[in-house]
Batch of 2 targets.
Target 1
Amino acid sequence: MVTLTKAEMVEQLFEQLGLNKREAKDLVEMFFEEIRTALGKGQHVKLSGFGNFMLRDKTQRPGRNPKTGEEIPVDARRVVTFRPGQKLKQRVEIYAGNATAQ
Amino acid sequence: MTKSEIIDILSRKQSHLGSKDVELSIKLLLEMMSETLSEGGRIEIRGFGSFSLHHRTARKGRNPKTGEQVSLAPKCVPHFKPGKELRERVNESRVSYPIQEE
């Protein structure tokens, strides 16, 4: 199974667009950093064709230590969730269809 | 925050690249990510998070209009698991930044 990493992204920016390795590395780094920065300032991030990173505030709720059964409250927190866009969902579903057909 | 806003910000920060190059780069990155997932692969970006596919098994559903039973094929959906740094930054911003609903 293929795993896409930053190193591979840098390689492709170099090969397909002719950016030098330094520029490519900076750009990949900055792209993910901008998304983190926006999410860290309470902004949702919407990447059309791919999907949306959405923030949600969760209230405190009762929880349990699964090992000991002891009750510990889960603190109020903010979480980020990813909602894939229509286009990405369709592309992924086509893969699943082919995978089961094989 | 949208894709075009990210492209604008990165073009300003990487002024030697030109906004066209930045735009092509970001589009290529997102295309690589979509393609990887639609071929059943994973994406791992340290400090940001990882994307993978979750499998949904075949199930019986109903046509909501007619009530007729239909069988739904198994499918895959993209899933994002935020990395530690992103999770912490988002959670820590809860107190200082309200979520901006535009």
Target 2
Amino acid sequence: MSIDKSEVEKIAWLTRLAIDKEDIASYCNELTNIVDLMEQMNSVDTTDIAPLAHPLNLSSRLRIDKVTETDQRENFQENAVETKDGYYLVPKVID
Amino acid sequence: MYKSTLAQLSIALESKKISSEELTRLYIERCNKHNNSLNCFITITEEEALKKARQADKKRASGDYNLLTGIPIAQKDIFCTNGTKTTCGSKMLDNFVAPYDATLIKKMNDAGLIMLGKTNMDEFAMGSSNETSFYGPVKNPWDGCRVPGGSSGGSASAVAARLTPAATGTDTGGSIRQPSSFCGITGLKPTYGRVSRYGMVAFASSLDQGGPMTQTAEDAALIMNIIAGFDEHDSTSTEKPTDNYTEKLNNSIKGLKIGLPKQYFDENLDNNVADVIENGLKELEKLGAKCVDVELPHTELSIPAYYVIAPAECSSNLSRYDGVRFGHRCKEPKNLSDLYCRSRQEGFGKEVKRRIMIGTYVLSAGYYDAYYIKAQKIRQIISNDFQNVFKNVDIIAGPTTTGVAFKLNEKLNDPISMYLSDLYTVSVNLAGLPAISVPSGFINKLPVGMQLIGNYFQESLLMNVAHQYQKVTDWHQKIPQAYE
């Protein structure tokens, strides 16, 4: 299985990662090698095996639907580059 | 004094041989002196540490204290610390100051431990050499040309050089055990869910687990008594009651049945490492343990399965870094999409991007079943293999790594060869089991660790076996000459 330029560009877009044109070739090469490594998994028949998502096979715990957290907006927004009136600012999306 | 274990320091403080302030000053001086050459700390919190140490002295004087009150410790820079920056080894979080403490940090603070600083690590814990850190590689104190292992390389290096009596780490595919082996210290990866992940920057959420990195198994037990336990803030935290981890340390291991997986001693293992491990096993046999051969037939498949599952979870977890609410933001974004794409391009390093790309690929339409579901099925098989073995043995033993610490740059540009070096550690994470790496000898002055793997929630037994081993060996007491 080989991962080509268009595949690399597609994955990069899916994950919103800008990549330099000169890096595309090395991404193709490295990702192809890693996918080749993954292909080793095909040496085992797993038809009747159930996938394991959680090591202890537990389901997520539920909690009572009650507000337990206090409002810390100002505290949390100290880490943001741009905020105004309690909102996070981003470039304009609609003209 | 700087050679003392946590247990010894506890006694020294209790008997007033030294104050917490004096002790903290001693370690801060060592950190400041050696950090330039080892680069094991990203942040040293000198003033805060000394302030806390004076408070600890007051607490001790007033009688309101715990066993470890006033003892310094280093925290891996993956744990959120309120008021002190938490970088996770990444440019993305270079300016990030968490607005809260991770549960592990809170528990240690409440117990009176003094944070000396935040230790260097592979970026977002992705790496096995500590070379992917935005803050530069950490050096192995046994040989400055070699890596300390990763991702908890800063913690391992700092404990080995005795810049701190103990540290914390996290282990997603070996990141506590492998650097512990490379640096000659003791490192415990607890059962998945045993130590809270709340406030621990997420890499692969179904694999990540925090734990102690110490000089001895006894010290690991002392730390586990503080950090283990249920946390309502972590939905994967287990409600199962904790042990008293120090209680069983002195139990006899006579009659203990140890399984030796054939696959851990095959041609992938360096011959010299095999000799060291065999000597270690002989010591355990002298203590009354019995070794039997067992099979973990799908060990080699743990690498491809791990390098599907971990990147898949990482690509999902790291999607939160979008340049909007926190973390790096690119200059003058043209539009929202440009803001996302360039902030991520600039903020993440090479290995992190590689894993995000792979993870996105295996989760994308058309490949999900072939890679992601397939890997989860392999994960089930690997877990079953372990359970089959544990029907007949109490613990499993073998090497932690295939060889000793490798040279800086030796594997950096060959990701596959870096991934393959995790052969004996990743399957433990896939199954969610506890395991400990214990110093067991040297090859050309480089430390070698023996790995002991237990069944779920058998941390006490692992530390008991390791403690008994450390009572009859002195590998864990060796200190690199330059730091004596």
